[in-house]
Amino acid sequence: MEESMAVEESVRSILSSEFGLDSSSLETDAAIFSAGLLDSLNSLRLLMMLESQFGLSISPLDVSLDDVDSISKITETVNRLKD
Q: C-alpha angle 64/74/35, rounded to 5°?
């Protein structure tokens, strides 16, 4: 559980520092891409940031845009790929 919270905090930090989103005011289940806060090009950048931050190798076959459409989904995806 603690590790999941640490992942969520890192995701919030990336969204804030790299994309200028006020992630502290975003609900964990709030849509990011489908709500238009970020576009599909940003999804590639986000995946690269997640790879760097968590030491992952993410194949486009591993994730869909839906897998990264909210803070909670990003956190779940990172935890799934870390295992």
A: 70
What kind of fold does domain 2-82 have according to CATH? 1.10.1200
Give the closest residue to 34 by CA, choosing from 8, 63, 58, 70. Answer: 70
Q: What is the pTM of this model?
A: 0.91
At residue 9, the 3 state secondary structure works out as helix
Rg (CA), the chain: 11
Digit-coded pLDDT (tens) for 34-75: 999 999 899 999 999 999 999 999 987 889 999 999 999 999
Lookup: tokens for 78 = 């990172």
